[in-house]
C-alpha cells in the first residue's frame, strides 16, 4: 500500500492512490535514487522533529520585516543544525535541507552559497582560496555577488563601476562615478551581507581591461555598519522574493588591497602590469553555474505545482460529464489533464536534463583546473539555451497549474503565488532570456557555417545531429517505436532547417551590404527560434535515453506514458515549423494529437501516485490545496481565519470611514 495513504485522508484522494498501476515507493526510488530518497526522508524527519524550524504563522500573513527576520532566524538555525542533519559535502543534501528549513522565497545565505562561494572556488588563486574559503564555509562572513548596475545588466562591457589600480599603495580604488553605476539587484546585498564579489572595470597604467571580479568588504564585522565610502541598502518590495533583501551599492573612492582582485585567471602584478586569462570568460563561471542549476530548479517548481494541481483536482468535484451520474473529480475533464499533465512531463524532462547539465558544469570546472578550457564554449552554449527555455516553459506551466485550480488557485493558500513569483525571476536573472537564446544561437551559427563549408568540428553529443543528413520527410505514423526515432528526427530536422535558413539569411543580408551586427539583429527572432528548436531536441533526446535505461517494467511503462505525452505535445507545439516546409503532413499532426490524448488517458489513473512519487512534502509545498491528506476545505477555512484581518470582527478604522459614510447616507435618506 502507498505510504501516502493514511487514515483520515480525503477518500477521493485515497481512491486515486489505490488505482495506481505501480508501486509509488519504487517509483520514488527510481526518481531520486535509493540513497538520495532515504536521505531525503531522514532529513525531512529531522526537520519535522525540530519544531523551531516552523513558521510562527503562514508567511503570506507576514510583513516584509517579519519575513526577513523569520528567514534570518531560520537561516542561523539551519547552519547550526546542518552538521547534525546532513552530510554538508553533498550538494543535494544541502539544497534539500535548506529548502525544507528556509523555504524558497530567499534567505540571507542564498547568494553566499550559490554565487559567492562558487566564485571563490573557481576564480580565487590558491593563496586567496586559503584565506577566504574556510571563512566563507565557516560563515565568518556573508557574501553576495554584485554585478548588475542600475544602468546595465546584460551588457557587461558597459558596467560603470571602476577599479583603478594605484601601484604606489598597491591598492585598487573602487568608485561609482554615476547614478547608473549604482549596483542594483544583488540578492542579500541590502541588509544581510558584509562582503561581496564586485564586478568592476579594471583600470591599470591608464588602460581599461574590462569587467573583473573583486572581493570587497562592505560592512564593519562588529557593528555591521557600512564601511566609509560605501552606501548600501535594500531596493524595496518586488514582484516576488520579498524575503530577499536585494540591494543597491555605491562606492566613493574606496581603497582595497591589490590581492582583493580574484587572481586565478587574470592578474595585476604589483607594478600594475596586467596578466590576461587563458579564456576571457572564465570569470563568468558563477553565472554558468546558476544557469545550469536553473534547469533543475524549474523542474522542482513544475513538479511542485503539478503536485498541487493534481491532488486538488482529485478532491475537487464540479459538474457532471454524464448527466445524472453525479459530479466528477475535475481531473476527469480532458481539458484539465491537458493543462496539468504536460507540466508533469516537462518537469521530468527538465529534471533529467538538469542532472546532465550540472554534471557537465562540474566536469568542465575540473577540466579548467587541469588547464583544459576546450569545453567552455559548449557548456556556455547549452546552459544558456536550457536556462532560457526551461525558465520560460516553467513559468507558463506554473500558470497553467494555477488556472487549473479555479478560484482557490488564486489564493496565497494555494502555494502558487510563492512558486510562480520565485520561478519567473529565472526568466530575467542570470541573463535575460532573449539574450541567453541569442548566446546559444551564436554557437549554432558557427555550426551552420561549419556545415555549409563541410568542416564539422570534433564530435560533440549535443550538436552532432546538426551534421547528419536526416530523412527528407517526417516518418511519424501510427506504429509504436519505444525509441521514438521518427519524433526525434522531426525535432532534429526542424532545428537543422531553422538554423541553416537563418544562417543563409545572415549571409545573404551581409552580401547585400549589412554589417554582421545589423544582419544579426534583423534575424534575431529566427535565431531565437533556432535555439528553441535545438534545446527541444536536446531535452527530448535526453528524456528518451534516460527512459530506455529503466529496467523495471511497471515503472518504465509509466515513464513511457509521460515520454509519449512529452514528445507529442512538443510536436504539436512546434507543428507550424514542421508543416512550414512540408516535412510533416496534416495527417501526421493528427497522429501526434491522438498520441497526446491517448497519453493523457493513460496517465489519468496514475496521476496522483505519480506526483506522490516526486516525494514533495507538505512543508515544501506550503499549499492548502496540495496537502498530502487532501483535506482542503476545512484547512482553507482555518487558513483564512489566521488572516491578521480576522483578529478583529470590526476593523479599528471601520467607523472612521465606511461606518461613518453609511451612517451619513442613512441619515440623509431619512431626511
Ligand atoms: C533543484 C535545484 C537545487 C538547488 C538549487 C541550486 C542552486 C540554486 C540555483 C539557482 C539560484 C536561485 C536563486 C539565485 C537567484 C538569483 C541569482 C541571480 C544572480 C544574477 O543575476 S548575477 C548577474 C547575471 N548577469 C548576467 O547574466 C549578465 C548577462 N550578460 C552576459 O552574460 C554577457 O554580457 C553576454 C553573454 C550577454 C555577452 O558577453 P560579453 O559582452 O562579455 O561578450 P561578447 O558578446 O563579446 O561575447 C564574447 C564571446 O564570449 C562568449 N561568452 C559570453 N559569456 C560566456 C560565458 N559565460 N562562458 C563562455 N563564453 C561566454 C560569447 O558567447 C562570445 O563567444 P563567441 O565565440 O564570440 O561567439
Ligand atoms: C530576482 C532577480 C535577482 C537578481 N539577482 C542578482 C544578483 O544577485 N546579482 C546581480 O548582479 N544581478 C542580479 N539580478 C540582475 C539580473 O541579472 C539582470 O536583471 C539581468 O541580467 C538583466 O539585465 P537588465 O535588468 O539590465 O536588463 P536589460 O539588459 O536592460 O534588458 C532589458 C530588456 O532588453 C532586451 N535586451 C537587452 N539586451 C539585449 C540584447 N543584447 N539582445 C536582445 N534583447 C536585449 C531584453 O528583452 C531585456 O528584457 C537579479 C535580477 C532579478 C530579477
TrEMBL record:
Alphabetical UniProt keywords: ATP-binding, FAD, Fatty acid metabolism, Flavoprotein, Lipid metabolism, Nucleotide-binding, Oxidoreductase, Peroxisome
GO MF entries: acyl-CoA oxidase activity; ATP binding; FAD binding; fatty acid binding
Entries under InterPro entries matching the protein: ACOX_C_alpha1 (IPR055060), Acyl-CoA_ox_N (IPR029320), Acyl-CoA_Oxase/DH_mid-dom_sf (IPR046373), Acyl-CoA_oxidase (IPR012258), Acyl-CoA_oxidase_C (IPR002655), AcylCo_DH-like_C (IPR036250), AcylCoA_DH/ox_N_sf (IPR037069), AcylCoA_DH/oxidase_NM_dom_sf (IPR009100)
Stretches assigned to the Acyl-coenzyme A oxidase N-terminal domain: 23-142
Keyword ATP-binding: yes
Coiled coil: none
Domain of life of the native organism: Eukaryota
Associated pathway: Lipid metabolism; peroxisomal fatty acid beta-oxidation
Stretches assigned to the Acyl-CoA oxidase C-terminal domain: 484-662
A single GO cellular-component term on record: peroxisome
Matching Pfam families: ACOX, ACOX_C_alpha1, Acyl-CoA_ox_N
List of residues binding FAD: 148, 187
Example of a GO biological process term: lipid homeostasis
Cofactor(s) of this protein: FAD
Subcellular location as annotated: Peroxisome
Major place of residence: other
Active site: 430 (proton acceptor)
Acyl-CoA oxidase C-alpha1 domain boundaries: 284-445
Annotated family: Belongs to the acyl-CoA oxidase family.
PANTHER family per UniProt: ACYL-COENZYME A OXIDASE, ELECTRON TRANSPORT OXIDOREDUCTASE
Protein's name in the database: Acyl-coenzyme A oxidase
Gene source species: Acrobeloides nanus
Amino acid at each position: 500500500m502507498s505510504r501516502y495513504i493514511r487514515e483520515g485522508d480525503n477518500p477521493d484522494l485515497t481512491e486515486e492512490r489505490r488505482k495506481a498501476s505501480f508501486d509509488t515507493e519504487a517509483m520514488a526510488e527510481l526518481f531520486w535514487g535509493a540513497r538520495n530518497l532515504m536521505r531525503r526522508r531522514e532529513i525531512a524527519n529531522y526537520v519535522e522533529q525540530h519544531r523551531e524550524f516552523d513558521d510562527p504563522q503562514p508567511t503570506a500573513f507576514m510583513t516584509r520585516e517579519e519575513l526577513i527576520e523569520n528567514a534570518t532566524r531560520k537561516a542561523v538555525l539551519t547552519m547550526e543544525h546542518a552538521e547534525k542533519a546532513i552530510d554538508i559535502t553533498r550538494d543535494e543534501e544541502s539544497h534539500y535541507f535548506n529548502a525544507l528549513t528556509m523555504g524558497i522565497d530567499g534567505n540571507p545565505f542564498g547568494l553566499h552559497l550559490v554565487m559567492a562561494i562558487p566564485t571563490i572556488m573557481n576564480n580565487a588563486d590558491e593563496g586567496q582560496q586559503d584565506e577566504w574559503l574556510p571563512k566563507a564555509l565557516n560563515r565568518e562572513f556573508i557574501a553576495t555577488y554584485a554585478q548588475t548596475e542600475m544602468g546595465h545588466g546584460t551588457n557587461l562591457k558597459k558596467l560603470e563601476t571602476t577599479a583603478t589600480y594605484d601601484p604606489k599603495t598597491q591598492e585598487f580604488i573602487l568608485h561609482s562615478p554615476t547614478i547608473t553605476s549604482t549596483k542594483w539587484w544583488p540578492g542579500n546585498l541590502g541588509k544581510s551581507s558584509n562582503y561581496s564579489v564586485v564586478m568592476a572595470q579594471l583600470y591599470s597604467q591608464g588602460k581599461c581591461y574590462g569587467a573583473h571580479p573583486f572581493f570587497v568588504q562592505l560592512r564593519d564585522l562588529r557593528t555591521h555598519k557600512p564601511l566609509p565610502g560605501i552606501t548600501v541598502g535594500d531596493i524595496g518590495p518586488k514582484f516576488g522574493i520579498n524575503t530577499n533583501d536585494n540591494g543597491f551599492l555605491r562606492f566613493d573612492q574606496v581603497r582595497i588591497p591589490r590581492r582583493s582582485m580574484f587572481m586565478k585567471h587574470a592578474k595585476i602584478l604589483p607594478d600594475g602590469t596586467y596578466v590576461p586569462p587563458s579564456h576571457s570568460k572564465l570569470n563568468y563561471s558563477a553565472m554558468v553555474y546558476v544557469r545550469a542549476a536553473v534547469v533543475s530548479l524549474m523542474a522542482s517548481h513544475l513538479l511542485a505545482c503539478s503536485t498541487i494541481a493534481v491532488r486538488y483536482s482529485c478532491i475537487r468535484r464540479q459538474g457532471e460529464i454524464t448527466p445524472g451520474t453525479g459530479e466528477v473529480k475535475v481531473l476527469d475533464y480532458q481539458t484539465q489533464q491537458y493543462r496539468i499533465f504536460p507540466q508533469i512531463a516537462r518537469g521530468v524532462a527538465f529534471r533529467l536534463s538538469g542532472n546532465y547539465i550540472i554534471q557537465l558544469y562540474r566536469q568542465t570546472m575540473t577540466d579548467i583546473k587541469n588547464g583544459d578550457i576546450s569545453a567552455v564554449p559548449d557548456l556556455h552554449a547549452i546552459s544558456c539555451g536550457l536556462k532560457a527555455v526551461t525558465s520560460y516553459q516553467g513559468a507558463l506551466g506554473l500558470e497553467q497549474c494555477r488556472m487549473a485550480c479555479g478560484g482557490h488557485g488564486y489564493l496565497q493558500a494555494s502555494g502558487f503565488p510563492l512558486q510562480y513569483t520565485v520561478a519567473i525571476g529565472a526568466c530575467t536573472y542570470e541573463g535575460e532570456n532573449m539574450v541567453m537564446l541569442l548566446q546559444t544561437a551564436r554557437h549554432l551559427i558557427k555550426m551552420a557555417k561549419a556545415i555549409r563549408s563541410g568542416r564539422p568540428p570534433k564530435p560533440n553529443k549535443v550538436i552532432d545531429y546538426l551534421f547528419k543528413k536526416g530523412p527528407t520527410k517526417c516518418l511519424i505514423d501510427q506504429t509504436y517505436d519505444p525509441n521514438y526515432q521518427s519524433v526525434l528526427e522531426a525535432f532534429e530536422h526542424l532545428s537543422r532547417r531553422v538554423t541553416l535558413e537563418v544562417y543563409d539569411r545572415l549571409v545573404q543580408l551581409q552580401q547585400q551590404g549589412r554589417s554582421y551586427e545589423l544582419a544579426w539583429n534583423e534575424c534575431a527572432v529566427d535565431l531565437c527560434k533556432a535555439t528553441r528548436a535545438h534545446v527541444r531536441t536536446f531535452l527530448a533526446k535526453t528524456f528518451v535515453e534516460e527512459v530506455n535505461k529503466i529496467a523495471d517494467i511497471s515503472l518504465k511503462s509509466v515513464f513511457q506514458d509521460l515520454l509519449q505525452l512529452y514528445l507529442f505535445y512538443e510536436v504539436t507545439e512546434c507543428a507550424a515549423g514542421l508543416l512550414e516546409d512540408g516535412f510533416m503532413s496534416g495527417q501526421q499532426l493528427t497522429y501526434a494529437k491522438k498520441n497526446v490524448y491517448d497519453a493523457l488517458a493513460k496517465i489519468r489513473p496514475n496521476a496522483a501516485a505519480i506526483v506522490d512519487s516526486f516525494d514533495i512534502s507538505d512543508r515544501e509545498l506550503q499549499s492548502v490545496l496540495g496537502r498530502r491528506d487532501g483535506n482542503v476545505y476545512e484547512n482553507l477555512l482555518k487558513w483564512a481565519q489566521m488572516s491578521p484581518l480576522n483578529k478583529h470582527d470590526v476593523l479599528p478604522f471601520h467607523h472612521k470611514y465606511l461606518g461613518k459614510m453609511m451612517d451619513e447616507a442613512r441619515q440623509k435618506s431619512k431626511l
